[in-house]
Design brief:
Two copies of one chain form a homodimer. Chain A has 431 residues and is of the alpha/beta class. Chain A has helices spanning 2-11, 15-26, 34-49, 111-122, 140-145, 149-159, 200-212, 264-283, 305-316, 344-350, 353-356, 374-378, 393-396, 409-428; strands spanning 54-66, 72-77, 80-84, 87-89, 101-108, 126-129, 165-169, 195-198, 216-221, 225-239, 244-254, 290-297, 320-326, 334-339, 363-366, 382-388. Chain A contains 14 helices and 16 strands.
């Protein structure tokens, strides 16, 4: 059966062509944008085309943040302009006042340095968070985890001491000219100061400028803004269960993306793989015991409102969700699955390893399922995440380089087939 | 110690920069060419720069095949020209007579079809071998193994029935416009007919043309030729053993490449990784028990003369070679190692898995070591091959797309560090 699933997935897959359409015809699709609305319409049609018994939209209110015009950041050394630094406003950041902000730069790599510098060292300054991905950390996600606090919490941490804005080194191992955006949060007890990602090459330039000894200032201009929430949708497709139609397995990814690049790896890949998993099971004539849903969640990037709405609706309708599997780590070659457990259930799942060995995806490890299925987990659903190789992911993550061409057809298809295989095995499982 | 090796390899690696120089300044480097001679000079210098105790050149005579001008292949349907098909002469092929060969096309996918067609069906024809990589075969190398007989033996198999030339579908899963060359052999008892690779897109065009029903002919023009053998060299670097200086461990790749692209994955990656493994061990101050050699073999692609010469010299000088590790499957993210054994030794090596798990390269499986270390294996050396992920390799293999930009810095470095770690573990091993 596993062989049949992979044979179907490697010969008649539609996920790569679906991804091309999502990336090239819909494009990037931040929550609340017209293109996110187009993505919902596209997703609904594409879901029907999988052969799902039903496909429907689930309404949800989502945040609406707009970048406005591209951010500008000018470097000034000893009062002389030294050209532009490559920046992108972080998602959720307020803009600068008209005319921008010009202020001296203070570089830090740890939050504790802010406490040491204090108000005397930070008031009126722009804080430059420059902690780099550690090169010796092998997993891209582990490296990300060790740095992303700068992006998420840096603005408020700096504002607590009177800083007027922050620049945050992009979350990537790569040395490149592309700023990588991503979500940030304000502590509402503190002033809301503008925050932008700076490319790793521009971070090096800024760092080197500070080393010279002359006064270094930057002029930052961001026209982003937060607007009232707007209506949007999750997209849901379903194969009806034959034995337990009101018990569910979910396979999903998120339909929204950041507002640059094409959201190909993040998370166009997960979207098309989830639909492909459903298509494969239908195409080989599998009659599932439980109902199987592919869910394209809205708003993972800046609010996860689709995630919480899906879980709330499941609870309200008394739909028991047994298992959920998310693909949101890119469309690279699959290495295995993360199981959000450390005990007996993880062990039981690791017994499936030999079934996945012929496909090179037998690494079944303890780890995070995914942001979108997280709320289901709180209600007792067992959570899984597809784990692709992570070496290339942060080259593209939240940057303009996250485009269709960066996704490899067979790698994408292998992941989708593996997801279908795991869903099949979970559907057959007697607890 | 393994951690120290990886920390050195992920922070101060020189292999990516070395690969850039080899690809961009030396370029492609087929045996016997001026650029292969430049590669030897470069390799000798780069080997010294690793900190090797000694670095020397080992003379070897190698085949000399020249492509000449680019091959031409014109498609004729019902006597009308339908444009060009993308082809590249196979390595070792003789050229066509002046003015080329024009003949009808016969498509086959298996050698047994030749026997069925016989002289009546094949005499005076050009045979088009169009057996595709099976999409359901997961490993790229397994797919290659199931098709490459067409390229290696197709010409003589067809010549046996009077065919005048052959076109062979390129060895790749990808549907692309790039012909993938590679070695072919003549059965010297049969006429030597010209042989060329045809891109998968052109193969589709030719296949579709045959389906129309009108007479399909092609006009093939190849100006390649075989010339007398010429002198060249293997490049060898050595860290002298402290306990058993006359017992050797070898880590190697091949310095020659095909005469298109830049030989980045095949096998620039193996070349720079082998030198990097030596550099890492030297840089961390490791004093090996046995002598460790990095060997850049000449002429893997079309003769493996460097391989046999190295083994012959080892035997002649009574240098006992315990272990040899080759990297010749591309510079992609490493998954583990192949051990050329199926018994107790393989089992013993699989006990090393936990040491490689933190680096994502713990797949220690039975498999081929490599062409260059093969002759050592016949004299009792234990053979190993680095096993990177294979999904993308045949997109680039022997094609113009095998360029530096297709290699990922961290993936290359991880492979090199893993090789250093395995060599360290083997050096420490008490049999």
């Amino acid at each position: 059966m596993i062989r049949r699933i992979f044979d179907e997935g490697m010969t008649r897959a539609q996920c790569y062509e679906n991804l091309r359409v999502l990336c090239k015809d819909v494009g990037h699709r931040i929550s609340g944008s017209p293109s996110a609305a187009r993505a919902v319409v596209w997703g609904h049609q594409a879901m029907k085309a999988t052969g799902a018994d039903t496909a429907f939209l689930q309404p949800v209110m989502v945040p609406h943040w707009e970048r406005g015009s591209v951010g500008l950041c000018e470097l000034l050394i000893g009062g002389q302009s030294r050209g532009r630094l490559e920046v992108l406003a972080l998602g959720g950041s307020d803009g600068t006042p008209d005319g921008g902000i010009e202020a001296p730069i203070v570089e830090v790599s740890r939050f504790t340095q802010l406490d040491t510098l204090g108000k005397a060292g930070l008031e009126g300054k722009i804080v430059f968070f420059n902690r780099a991905f550690p090169p010796t950390t092998i997993s891209g996600f582990a490296a990300y985890g060790s740095c992303v606090d700068q992006r998420v919490d840096g603005a408020s941490k700096a504002a607590a001491y009177g800083a007027v804005a922050v620049l945050v080194r992009s979350m990537t191992h790569a040395l490149d000219p592309y700023p990588h955006t991503g979500v940030m949060h304000y502590d509402e007890k503190l002033p809301r100061v503008p925050a932008a990602a700076i490319s790793t090459l521009s971070a090096r330039k800024l760092h080197d400028s500070l080393a010279v000894g002359k006064p270094v200032r930057v002029r930052l201009n961001l026209s982003c803004r937060n607007l009232p929430d707007v209506p949007s949708h999750n997209v849901v497709g379903e194969l009806r269960g034959t034995e337990f139609p009101n018990e569910y397995l979910v396979v999903g990814g998120h339909l929204d993306s950041w507002d640059i690049g094409e959201g190909a790896h993040d998370d166009g890949a997960g979207v098309v793989q989830s639909m492909e998993a459903l298509r494969i099971l239908k195409a080989i004539g599998y009659k599932p015991r439980h109902s199987i849903r592919a869910v394209l969640f809205m708003n993972e990037e800046n609010g996860a409102k689709g995630a919480s709405e899906y879980a709330a609706q499941a609870k309200a309708h008394n739909e028991r969700h047994l298992y959920a599997l998310e693909s949101d780590r890119g469309g690279f070659v699959p290495r295995g699955f993360a199981v959000q457990d450390t005990g007996a259930f993880l062990k039981a799942m690791q017994e499936l390893k030999p079934l996945f060995e012929p496909y090179g995806m037998s690494e079944i490890v303890s780890g995070h399922g995914g942001v979108d299925i997280g709320p289901l987990g709180k209600d007792g659903t067992r959570l899984f995440g597809l784990v692709p190789d992570s070496q290339r992911y942060f080259d593209h993550h939240h940057a303009q380089t996250d485009v269709f061409e960066a996704v490899h057809k067979r790698e994408l298809e292998l992941g989708a087939a593996g997801m279908a295989a795991l869903i099949y095995l979970l559907d057959q499982r007697k607890e």
